Amino acid sequence: MKRIIECVPNFSEGRDSKVIDAIVAAIAEVEGVKVLNVDPGEATNRTVVTFVGEPEAVTEAAFRGARKAQELIDMRKHHGAHPRSGATDVLPLIPVAGITLQECADLARRLAKRMYEELGIPCYCYEAAAFTPERKNLAVCRAGEYEALPDKFKDPSRRPDFCGDWDEHAQRAGASNVGARDFLVAVNFNLNTTSTRRAMAVAFDVREKGRKAREGGSLTGKLLKDADGNQIWIPGTLKGCKAIGWYIDEYGIAQVSMNITDINATPLHVAFEEVSRAAAARGLRVTGAEIVGLVPKKVLLDAGRFYLEKQQRSLGISEEEIVKIAVKSMSLDDLKPFDPREKVIEFLMKDEAEEAASHRLVRMSAEGFARETASESPAPGGGSVSAYMGALAAALATMVANLSAHKRGWDERWKEFSDVAEQGQAVLDELLALVDEDTAAFNRIMDAFGLPKGTEEEKQARAEAIEAATLYAASVPLKTMEASLKALPLALQMARSGNPASASDAGVAALAALAGIRGAHLNVRINAAGLSDKAPAAPLLERAAAIEAEAAALESEVLAAVNEHI
Questions:
Q1: Which of 158, 302, 367, 417 is the most buried (most CB within 10 A)?
Q2: Within this chain, do residues 149 and 197 fall inside the same structural domain, yes or no?
């Protein structure tokens, strides 16, 4: 899985567009970073920038944004409605995909250290990156705001985690708060009422903070306090959730507006189900939900899988279909159209031109791929075709599993077949990627042969490039063999215990898998033969021969099981 993090720095400038543009440009200049949103506020005199990318690129972009903010913003002259302590006021790193919160916390600490050592910016580390428990709370780090920093620098218990003296340099930059937190999902639940009071009651029922305790449990009774005179609170049912009720003129309905600050403790679909339950208990109904801002793809995939499980339907379908189930189950399109391509971070990050180039073959129609193969060009050739045959094998095994999962009378076995279908989808994805990768490997060899060979140095560099490209071209079809081999046990399981009416499809899956493996084996051998140094080729050839032998035995088992049904 590609590692993706989000960064949402808040800069203490919301009025001067030239300053804002310069900071955003510094962030955007880092390759691999995509700026998703820039939200300046005049009253707050503060701009929130949202950008995403792989961890190394994002932390570099965050550093450059902080450096530019330090150059252009003088905190001694800053005034605004929002609490602030530095030119780069808060700088959180947020895990989106393929990375943990703890890893983001480690990145945040290193970033804060670098900001101080290279730029002289004093830094507090907050939330998951905090060095002490009390500094997990941003409010503690920013207490007293910029104006309190001179005194805080003198107090060892309140000084920033990384800082020197309160000199002119620090006075200009202020103190930045660098941290790591989980992704926050902002969502509004639509109610079939216009009553703000009833919407607020539902919000109190579910939000973690809950509501103030009152005599008799009523909404209007006397407030209850403990022996020390402190207000007693009745906690709500959802961890990591903040919520209020409000009325929206634009839609003419009341909503429960919620921030889910811990999507691991309370996934979106869990919040939807609980708000629906709490609303129903008060005679209301949730008619849908409205996601505000962006979400990681995992949020919708987890929701889609949850609702498929409730229906006892196979989870082994495409991600696109799973997302569609999530959208319909929570009526995310209740108030206006919901387009995942505009709401899911991973989709927004995609470079369409790059995607089209790297997935050129698999994006073709079946006829287009066949005719491209039949053209005068040597690629795509046998390697890509072998990967595609393996992909078809995985697709057929997955199809039989999905058909079996909802066969009449087999309802209690849905999970058994769903598990197989999920495995099949993973193998299918792996092999589809190899269709284009094999052609890319061939092109790499051609590029190496095209290198200059005038001087001895150039000849040596060219020879080394050809050798490396040839070894890579031998390793790619071996990956195709490994992946295609995974399809055969799935086909065997479906031939033996899947829907008998689809037994022949499992047999075709086995035939396709073995054909793909044998074809890829030929490509391993012919590329390995082109290596000057035969030592690296030996383990590749040995593994390839073992895979073909294992595949041939499995194919025989599949066909034997199929023939028992025919």
A1: 417
A2: no
| Domain extent at residue 336 | 185-348
Return d(Cα 85, Cα 166) in angstroms, integer.
13
Residue 156 is classified by DSSP as T
Using left for φ > 0, alpha for ψ between -120 and 50, and beta otherwise, residue 409 falls in: left
- Residues 392, 278 within the same domain: no
Q: Choosing from 16, 82, 333, 429, which is the catalytic residue?
A: 82
Maximum separation of any 2 CA atoms in the chain, in Å: 93
521 is a catalytic site residue:
no
User: Which member of 161, 262, 438, 505 is catalytic?
Assistant: 438
Statement to judge: residues 172 and 189 lie in one domain: no
d(C-alpha 535, C-alpha 539), whole Å:
8
Cα separation, 467 vs 475, in Å, equals: 12
Q: Is 260 helix (H, G, I), strand (E, B) or coil?
A: strand
Could you give the CA distance from residue 289 to residue 272 in angstroms, rounded to a whole number? Answer: 8
| Residue 177 bridge partners (DSSP) | 90, 124
What is the reported pLDDT for 564?
A: 95
CATH number of the domain bearing residue 70: 3.30.990.10
Where do we find the tokens 């990145």? 107
- Judge if 194 and 343 occupy the same domain: yes
Q: At 295, list the tokens.
A: 């979400």
Q: Which residues of 500-512 are buried (b: 16+ CB within 10 A; e: fewer)?
A: eebbbbbbbbbbb
- The distance from CA 64 to its chain's CA centroid, rounded to whole angstroms, is 24
Annotated active-site residue 82? The verdict is yes
pLDDT for residue 1: 66
Residue ranges of the chain with per-residue pLDDT less than 70: 1, 219
Please name the amino acid found at residue 327. Answer: V
Is 478 in the same domain as 548? yes
Regarding pTM above 0.85, the answer is no
